[in-house]
Design a protein that fits this description.
Elements (H helix, E strand, L loop, with lengths): L3 E8 L8 H4 L5 H6 L5 H14 L2 E4 L10 H10 L8 E2 L7 H11 L1 E9 L10 E3 L11 H7 L5 H27 L14 E2 H10 L6 H10 L5 E3 L5 E4 L13 E2 L5 E6 L3 H7 L9 E3 L3 H8 L5 E6 L1 H6 L4 E3 L5 E3 L7 E2 L5
């Protein structure tokens, strides 16, 4: 029978709700006979998502093979204090998990849906949210999940606003301590701007800042300007550029395009015409790869204007440029003769 579902969560259990916590926490004889209990912290997050979104649960986990009986499945979720039980599982013809989800979506009418799993599923990439199996479902996943589910109501808007404000404030604080004042929380930066991830998290906690690794990972990955970067092992973190403390970012010189752009305020125009663009307290002048990006940068200032920089000509005359991983171009300074003041005002 074809189902009509407004919003659905295709739910994996292992790595999403069932973590290492449950393997050492048997709460009753029922669990001894029926499997590990869910991590209550993950359940709390799922219940929050269910309450705000009104979504239904469809079980896509391997647990579907042991709980094809919906009544027994309802017992499992009830004993684990999940506010809703699954309305169905993706068991159709014992296909693989990805094929079963794809078939279920194709054969039913589902307006909005999200797939939560700790293994990568490629059938619906825009509807997929990967969950770190080491932590399971944490509150850092709430916003991405609600976004995929296209949830727009007062509750979600308040939640989104609260979460966004918190993330923005933390991001600003990270910019402060990783670019300008590491001593503010008692961390140190090495010569290339790196600091220990664990030390940063510990010092933030001592300061009363609600930041764990999962939230830090989300800030690094989701930051619109890609201001921060982890080392390959995630053991260290640094700001990508914008430092006022002296660091060597170990970025090799690059050949810039013929034109780069700089967003500023017309209030500074006379001094720029006289002295050019100076790095001020930063280690370099920051330039944008295109007009649109420079325009976004300039909106932080009143009376914004965009200047075109003859970067190709500068490089041919001996100026050294660096290109960061977040697509910002750096140069020591820009003399006024290399600035086009007329075309982009």
């Amino acid at each position: 029978m074809k189902r009509k579902i407004e919003k659905a969560i295709f739910l994996d259990i292992d790595g999403v709700l069932s973590t290492g916590w449950g393997q050492n926490k048997r709460r009753s004889k029922w669990f001894d006979e029926n499997g590990y209990p869910f991590d209550p912290h993950c359940v709390k997050v799922l219940n929050r998502i269910l309450k705000v979104s009104g979504a239904e649960i469809i079980l896509s986990s391997d647990w579907r093979f042991n709980y094809s009986d919906l009544e027994k499945l309802n017992q499992l979720f009830k004993f684990n204090n999940v506010s809703k039980s699954p309305i169905d599982t993706t068991i159709l013809k014992y296909l693989g998990r990805e094929e079963e989800v794809e078939t279920y979506v194709r054969e039913n009418e589902i307006k909005d849906f999200v797939i939560l799993d700790d293994i990568s599923l490629t059938c619906f990439p825009s509807n997929f949210v990967w969950v770190n199996p080491g932590t399971g479902l944490t509150k850092e996943y709430i916003l991405p999940i609600l976004d995929v589910l296209n949830v727009k109501n007062d509750k979600s808007e308040k939640l989104l606003h609260k979460e966004h404000k918190e993330i923005t404030n933390i991001s600003k604080f990270l910019s402060l301590v990783l670019r300008h004042k590491p001593e503010e929380i008692g961390i140190s930066l090495d010569k290339n701007g790196w600091t220990s991830t664990n030390t940063l998290l510990r010092k933030c906690s001592e300061r009363g800042i609600n930041l764990d690794f999962e939230k830090l990972l989300m800030i690094v990955e989701k930051n619109d300007k890609k201001r921060f970067a982890f080392s390959s092992s995630f053991a260290k973190i640094r700001a990508v550029q914008g430092h006022s403390v002296k660091v060597a970012l170990d970025i090799p010189p690059s050949v810039p395009p013929e034109l780069l752009f700089h967003g500023t305020s017309s209030d500074f125009l006379q001094s720029i015409k006289k002295e050019g663009l100076l790095k001020g307290q930063r280690t370099h002048v920051h330039l944008s790869p295109n007009y649109e990006t420079a325009l976004q940068v300039s909106k932080r200032r009143k009376n914004s204007i965009i200047l075109a920089i003859k970067s190709g000509e500068m490089q041919r005359q001996g100026f050294t440029f660096y290109h960061t991983s977040n697509n910002v171009w750096l140069v020591e300074n820009v003399p006024s003769q290399f600035i086009n003041f007329a075309s982009y005002n």
